[in-house]
Amino acid sequence: MSDLMSIELNGVSYRVEVTHTLSSFLEYHGIDTQGCAVAISNQIIPRSEWQKRGLSQGESISLFQAIAGG
């Protein structure tokens, strides 16, 4: 059994360790998340859950700038 899985971040494929959380994945790849929001499979993940949210094979992550407005 492989300890790597494939996920996608903003259309780019990554092979990552199965033990990565969302937070550790973003940190490991040096991705600046200040002022950003994250959705996994089109569901917003609150920043308070990033450290405990595990990743699964084939998930699609979207990272985008949060914009205030009305």
TrEMBL record:
Q: Which organism is it from?
A: Aliivibrio fischeri (Vibrio fischeri)
Stored NCBIfam families? thiS (TIGR01683)
Protein name per UniProt: Sulfur carrier protein ThiS
In terms of PANTHER family, this protein maps to: SULFUR CARRIER PROTEIN THIS (PTHR34472:SF1)
Name the domain of life this protein comes from: Bacteria
| Pfam families on file | ThiS (PF02597)
Record CDD domains: Ubl_ThiS
